[in-house]
Amino acid sequence: MGFSEEDRRMSFRQRVALKPLAVLGSLVALTVLASGFVRSSVRIVGRGTVKAVGVGVFWNSNCTNPVSFIDWGMVEPGSMNNATVYVRNEGNVAASISLATENWNPSNASDYLTLSWNYDGRQLNPREVVQTALILSVSSSVHGIESFSFDIIISSSG
Questions:
Q1: 61 and 110 in one domain?
Q2: Hey, is 141 helix, strand or coil?
Q3: Which candidate, 17, 57, 86, 103, has a CA 20 to 30 Å from the CA of 66?
């Protein structure tokens, strides 16, 4: 049983016509997969307002560019994000400095986000400057938070 020349041409035309549809179908499938991937990726936008008590907090070691807030930008679950700042003892006696946070918005953000630093705890002499990294750690199980803000309090005691 042979195919006529017309049957072979039709099959060829049909195959040529179906080829773009197959490619289009593949592109649609890739788009759906890519869209699903993007939707499953969680990114959170955040900002921390810096409040200094008895100290100055600066972006540069010359202490000429004060820090009023830290824009953490987009953070992802399981990430650690750093901001380097310079802290100067503004008092007239040696003092230790401490780090605290408050006013988390939303209030449950502190369940998933933690702020720490690499300050070694030693006392700073008057006008002494120390470089430190503020480290925002984001839990890998964070959910239900699209943006956040909080206050960062750096203070001296001594």
A1: yes
A2: coil
A3: 103
Q: What angle do CA 20, 23, 28 make, to 5 degrees?
A: 120
Interval 79-104: pLDDT, tens: 999 999 999 999 999 999 999 999 99
Structural domains in the chain (count): 2
Residue 7 domain boundaries: 1-41
| Residues 78, 52 share a domain | yes
Q: Are residues 149 and 72 in the same domain?
A: yes
At residue 47, does pLDDT exceed 70? yes
Clarify whether residues 58 and 32 are in a common domain: no
Helices (H), the chain: 5-40
Contact indicator for 56, 90 with CB cutoff of 8 Å: yes
Mean pLDDT for 108-127 is 96
DSSP secondary structure string for all residues of 100-113: EEEEEESGGGGGTE
